[in-house]
Amino acid sequence: MAASSAAIAAAYPHSADADTPSDAVPVPLQQQPVHPPASDSTASTRAGSPAKQDHADKDQDGSQVDVKKAQQDFAELRRQLSRSSSLHRTLTGQKDPEKEGDEAHQEDFDLLEYLTSSADQRNAHGFKSKRVGVIWDKLSVTGAGGMKIFIRTFPDAIKEFVFSPVFMILMKAGLFAPKPRKLLDDFDGCAKPGEMVLVLGRPGSGCTTFLKVIANNRGGYLGIDGDITYGGIPAAQMAKEFRGEVVYNQEDDVHQATLTVAQTIKFALSNKTPGKTLPGETRGKFNEQVMLLLLKMLGITHTKDTLVGSAFVRGVSGGERKRVSIAEMMATRASTCCWDNSSRGLDASTALDYAKSLRILTDVFHMTTFVSLYQAGEGIFEQFDKVLVLDQGRQVYFGPAKEARPYMISLGYADLPRQTSADYLTGCTDPNERRIAEGRSEADVPTTPDAFAEAFKKSDIYARMMAERDEYRQFVAKDQVVHDDFVTAVREDKRTGVSRKSPYTVSFASQIKALVIRQIQIKLQNKLDLYVSFITSIIIALIAGSIYFQLPTTSAGAFTRGGAIFMAVLFNSFQAFNELPTQMLGRAIMWKHQRFAFYPPAALSLAATLADAPFSFVQILLFSLIIYFMAGLNGTAGAFFTFYAIALAGFFALAGFFRLLGTICSSFDVAARLASILITLMITYGGYLIPVFSMKRWLFWLYYINPLNYAFSAAMENEFRRISLTCDGNYIIPRNAGNITRYPDGLGPNQICTLVGSTAGSTAVPGSDYIRANYEYDVGDVWRNFGITVAFCIFFNLLQMFFVGYFKHGADAPQINVFRPEDKETKALNEELQANKEAFRKGEREQDLSNLIQTRKPFTWENLCYTVPVPGGQRQLLDNVFGYVKPGTLTALMGASGAGKTTLLDVLANRKNIGVVSGTVLVAGRPIGKDFQRGTAYVEQLDTHEHTATIREAFRFSAYLRQPPHISKEEKDKYVEEVIQLLELEDMADAMIGFPGFGLDVEARKRVTIGVELASKPQLLLFLDEPTSGLDGQSAFNIVRFLRKLAAAGQAILVTIHQPNSLLFEHMDRLLLLERGGRTVYFGDIGKDSIVIRSYFAKYGAHCPEKANPAEYMLEAIGAGSRRMVGNKDWGDIWNESQELVQVKHEIEELKSQGLKIQDGGSQDLETEYATNFMQQMQVVGKRTMIAFWRNPDYGFTRMFNHISIALCVSLTFLNLGNSVVDLQYRVFAIFFVSVLPAIIISQVEPTFIMGRGIFIRESSSKMYSQIVFALSQLAAEVPYSILCAVVFFLLFIYPMGFNMASSRAGYQFAMILVTEMFAVTLGQAVGALAPSIMIAAMANPFLLVIFGLFCGVTIAPSAMPRFWSAWMVDLDPITRLIAGMVSTELYDLEIKCLEREFQVFNPPSGQTCQEWAGDFVTAVGGYLDNGAATTGCKYCQFKVGQEFYQGLGISFSNRGRDIGILIAFAVFNCCLTVAASRFLKYSKR
Predict the structure, then answer these.
(1) Can you give the pTM of this predicted structure?
(2) Cα of 522 vs its chain's centroid, Å
(3) DSSP character at residue 333
(4) What span, in angstroms and rounded, lies between the C-alpha atoms of 92 and 3?
(5) pLDDT band at residue 98 under the 50/70/90 scheme
(6) Three state DSSP letters for 318-355
(7) Which of 77-86, 497-506, 1257-1266 bottoms out in mean pLDDT, i.e. has the lowest?
(8) Residue 1087: CB partners within 8 Å, gap ≥ 6?
(9) Are the C-beta atoms of residues 486 and 132 closer than 8 Å to each other?
């Protein structure tokens, strides 16, 4: 936040004397004035605000301020900031000739003017300013609530689907309307331009709701009553025309994880660049300079080229990511900004700088700013003009910030001087924290939200605020200049081509351009996915090309040539299926940007298609080149490029289709259900497997609405119109076979060619005749069909662009909690929790922690260094750190963001698996053993949990697996209840944890993370990384107070705290303070009133003011924030040369020697790696995994639905098959569809397994359970659903088609389907275990599925394959066993009766009967003659019994037992591979 501190120094002449020497000790930030003097423009906006005016005219001593000088200094500040070279001055406050260069050559343009469009310079040129105050009158918000929603389970999903039409009708009738609950009730007030409002309240009081509604984010609520106006503009008009002027910054940081910080901010700026720029200035350079200013202002310049990252992608730290969110919203240049707990994750100094930045921006740019904060320090509180205090949805105070505390005291509450003002105000709304003043009682002090609100409405402050609101309302109504200026300024901002009433700043084309650039950056920076995609495509093309290698232009190559074309079109088209998850994953970011008025959702839809195009062009070109020429398709340039164009059209049509599917479906599970049906129908009715004339009349219309059909038909017509096929070999009957030599070698007069489309007596079959007869394709329709494919592409994309804004999936979903239904046990436990709640809060009951710690060993580290590999070399993150933690002490770890606090905790907790760690880490003077990780508890920053578990279940899971085995289950359960009580989670004990947006909120999830670790009763150490971040002040105090109790019981604790107030800080025994680079600044005692650490810093020139927060001051003194370091010598060097470090080393030696005297192995429980044995782990983990699957109903139901849909699609297509030749082929095709099941199953199993592995990685770091237990529990949980799916599929698949119903046949078919089901599940888990991410696993699927389909013997016979493949790959293909077993079981002894059109008719030589002429041939090759005694018109049927069909394929009925056995062996191998991969592959890098 460098720019903000420079602005403070330059704008406030009374904050530091101009003549102060450079080496003087700077005035502490707490003692500096918090508002700049009002210039003429600022003062005009503050009329009617006596408190504000008084504050602007007087300094802290009450003396008058030289306003003229202040205006001159402010002009000087703006002159400095208007030079592009002034960024260095922004950091240091000094001119550096080397860095600044010659000022005469600097460009003179104002960056701050760009950010607000309200500078005097622009006013002089006729530009208008944007000043929007906010008035809220009788504001009430109603949300859903008042009823407990239970966790959905597998049966619920089935019921919802079956009865969904009934539910929809009842909901329309209002019978299922949610019960309303007041979230906000009767709020009144106003905030004028240039004012900052601090919104305070306990979690659940309505702070977020208030900020969202003020920011005009009205979705997700049942009703909003009252009136909100923005500078006189109604909320509806504001949302329609000026949406980007009122914005809300949510608490969670939602970004594209694989973009860099610079790219993220540049993208925001590119959508907000105003239409008019300075002469000769390109928008690109302009955005670059503004981006650098924002990075400097927020102190994250060093992260410019670092990925933003996420919970699963390594990137910037949590505090830095929060600042990226701040910068992104600052780039909106909005007039009214609402910030929801935006200091979460920032250290105290940075949080103060952030608040001061908002103060400067608000004052200089006349913004209206609302901020909700937890644990706001006094320095932060002083930045605000007004405070709004909420209590359970009621407005209990709204007025000047400096009058808030006295007001609460006047109500009868005791003042708590050691509490910060923000914590005190919030505490007054907490029945368990507030204290009533002496001489007062609850009878004459408001203690309920309603009484609080009523008391406020009777107060003088309320009357003044209402008068101020009315005065401002009248001012806005009378003076239309401000309103007109605002409207004019917004419209002048718009670029060319933007409608006057559009809420967007740049044109649709510019939005598309920015989005295309962003999407391409995302793809290019995710190189692994890109490489895997291209490599997979090329390998599949090579394999397919080698199988269809140089197909002959004979009758033998006719069907296989169609197979090669179908495979090429199909693979390229269904590569687009990967667009489905991509489309859905970015929804949260899209809706955030839409609210910021960056772009409409339709722009993203179109941009995603355009950004994919270059990659798709190249990938499909490579694929087409390989398979086209290897297969020996027509080699002319026209033929190839026509094929390439058709393949592209098919891909883009299907990509548009899958994106459309992702747009209209609420979740991936719903989309997957639809996709399973539609993909099956597309393949079945694509024209290759079943010609259109053979389709059921009531289903053939599917053929005409299938885009795949038109792409395939165009490709077939393109190829076959250019070739002529020669009839030879097995397509001539009768012919020589075996020892028969009586027939002519060629096509004689008494022989016929069986190739469809042939003419009698001719060996040449024109390709056009072949496809006309076999498929009803006309070669003249190539470009018509191509055009229809392109039309499908355009149609799908247009629909997608419309529906993406129509269906607001995930945009306004309210966060809800769902609960496990109470049983007898949990009901009793919950009643006990509620009974103890009041006594526990009041301190009437205390936890007995006396027997908590059985072993008390000191923990020491010396010369600790840690380096990590970075591009170009190594980076040192820790630099010779010394320290220790004694049992029974609470040690704080502090430092600026990026100083290495989390890194040090990771290293000490033995969690790092990359980089090089050096130094010595000892427990009781001995190296750490294999029991160390489970003997320590580590509360990490990221809240990663099994989302289907309830809070009580998560705590019990940790206790069962991590507490010593000799402790009984009853004792563990009892301790879990105490942890629930401590963390104030009594009302949520049976609530499902969920995930962000569904389930517990951020604050509750943080408590769960702490509780999971506390439930383990760590015997060695307790590490906590920012356990109080995101918590309100009282909750943070309760956590620290409990840690204090744990320490008193003998626990050794090391905790990082970002924003401790004085009260929290004094609960710590010792402090380890780090500066950037991982260097130690101080390690030692804190002392009463921080006397020890104050003395240390004072000894070297940093004198902490009496009333300052020592924790904040220490960070400022070492230069952690934007202020310059106190003194001229680096504090790390001072520490390294200090006597205190010598003393620390001496104490470490003493602790080591004392530790060696402690008997090692005193506790047998700590001698093993895991606390429980294998069977206990399997029992606990297996039960949780079973429950997780049961409570993930969409997963199980989607899988079952896919089986039902595929079975019905196939069985209805091939309904009641007869005994004809075509029906025999359809039986084989139907069985081939069983091989589609693995494709559907593994695409579902992989994400589930990989997400489960993410939970396991966190839990395994604490040695809760082994890798084998994880893998086996995942498999065991899948088994019940696999059996159910197999039964459903078998019943709907086998019986409708009329398969053999004999028990020996049907039973075998069911067994094969069940084994196939388990094979697919185990394969999906094996691929998931081998893959580092879900995307990589998904990209491997097409490779596996194409391999399975190509080599199973259906698409191309083994005899037609090159010897290289047929010799080994056919037998290695698991699907070969599936096909062989099911086909032989179904076709064996099946009598075949040819239909009249299926007979091959030929004439015997004169004087011979049909039997005499063709009898030998029939005996040799099979089949039968229908009229053997005839002398003309011999009718030959190709097959007599079913086994004649598969005998040439190497399939035998006698081997079907072997086939199912081999498939079982494949499944067992997959299990072994999963266990081995889970055991040895480590994809968690930290």
Answers:
(1) 0.80
(2) 15
(3) -
(4) 9
(5) very low
(6) HHHHHHHHHHHHHCCCCCEEEEECCCCCCCHHHHHHHH
(7) 77-86
(8) 1093, 1094, 1095
(9) yes
512 vs 603: CA distance, rounded Å = 6
> Tokens 């923990």 identify what position?
859
In sequence order, the β-bridge partners of residue 397 are 389
Q: Which of 1270, 1186, 1212, 1281 is nearest to 1240 (CA)?
A: 1281
- In this predicted structure, the answer to whether residue 18 has a pLDDT above a threshold of 60 is no
- Residue 607, token pair as written in the block: 């941009």
Please name which of 592, 615, 616 lies closest in space to residue 604, comparing C-alpha atoms.
592
| Residues sharing a CB contact under 8 Å with residue 39, sequence separation 6 or more, in sequence order | 70, 71, 74
Distance (Å) of CA 1313 to CA 244, 780, 1228, 1317: 56, 44, 15, 6
Both tokens of residue 143? 């949300």
Closest Cα to residue 595, out of 301, 290, 902, 332? 332
- The CA-CA-CA angle for residues 1200, 1202, 1203, to 5°, reads 65
pLDDT band at 1182 (very low <50, low <70, confident <90, very high): very high
Distance CA 1432, CA 287 (A): 87
Longest dimension (CA), the chain: 133
Say which amino acid occupies 260. Answer: T
Q: Please give the Cα distance from 543 to 1347 (Å, whole number).
A: 8
Q: How far is it, in rounded angstroms, from Cα 1327 to Cα 1186?
A: 21
Report how far residue 628's alpha carbon sits from residue 723's, in angstroms, rounded to the nearest whole number: 15
Identify which of 254, 324, 338 has the alpha carbon closest to the alpha carbon of residue 591. 254
Question: How far apart (Å, rounded) are the C-alpha atoms in residues 557 and 1479?
Answer: 48
C-beta atoms surrounding 585 within 10 Å: 14
Q: Please, which pLDDT band fits residue 1417 given cuts at 50, 70 and 90?
A: very high
1066: its two tokens: 């004094």
- pLDDT confidence of residue 146: 62
Q: HSE of 486 in the Cβ direction (CA atoms, 13 Å)?
A: 27
According to DSSP, residue 65 is labeled: P
Is a pLDDT exceeding 50 seen at residue 30?
no
Instruction: Work out the average pLDDT over 1395-1404.
Output: 92
Provide CB contacts within 8 A for 443, sequence distance 6+.
none
CB atoms within 10 A of CB 1238: 24
Mean pLDDT taken over the chain: 83
Q: Residue 892 has which token pair?
A: 């704080």
Q: In sequence order, what DSSP letters do the residues of 172-215 get, joined into one string? A: HTTTTPPPEEEEEEEEEEEE-TT-EEEEE--TTSSHHHHHHHHT
Q: What pLDDT is stored for residue 4 in this prediction? A: 36
18-32, 850-864, 1293-1307: range with lowest mean pLDDT: 18-32
Q: Concatenated DSSP letters for 237-264?
A: HHHHH-GGGEEEE-SS----TTSBHHHH
Angle of helix 1174-1190 relative to helix 1267-1297, nearest 10 degrees, comes to 40
Mean pLDDT of 30-55: 36
Q: How many residues does the chain have?
A: 1486
CB-side exposure of 56: number of CA atoms within 13 Å? 24
Are the C-beta atoms of 501 and 279 separated by less than 8 Å?
no
Residue 51 pLDDT > 50, yes or no? no
